[in-house]
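[Q] Does anyone have a clean structure-token version of this?
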Amino acid sequence: MHVINTFFEVREIQQTLAQTPAILHGLTAHASADALAFREAPGTWNALEVLYHVTDGELTDWMPRVRVILSPSGDRRFTPFDREGGFARYRGWSAAAVLAEFARLREENLAELADLQLTPEQLRLEGVHPEFGPVTLLQLLATWVTHDLAHVAQIARVLVRRAGRDVGPWAAYFSLLRGRT
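[A] Here you go.
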């Protein structure tokens, strides 16, 4: 069983989430339009689409679900998250604009999260995910961090694979390029 140490657990979550805007900016702000549009394979997301996705999550996923769990009303059901909703919402936005929007929304969300001063009891409260059923607030917050880190890794992988097209025999040194043409 996972023992909850509220102060350190939530503080670590907040600190990790606070780093994501700068990391994404560092990975993508100076990337060319071609690099941002590069797809590893048909049907995969490019770096710009990942930015659209994470920015949309700041509006429609994480804090709205936190509010549902903490709401005094009895309905704890989450609204389904449209994973590609940000594609339409931010279509036509430059990387710089969507990065700035992401940073702004993340700052607002982290301020709201800090103001909640979550307790161990609150972290055990549950919401109802449309696919998984009951999930705790701690699980939601851990998923938020995991989601950020996974998409940072995804963007880095896509950019590695684009740049790696031209490394020649050095591809043997990069696990992300093995088996790629």
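[Q] Thanks! Anything notable?
[A] The chain has a mean pLDDT of 93.
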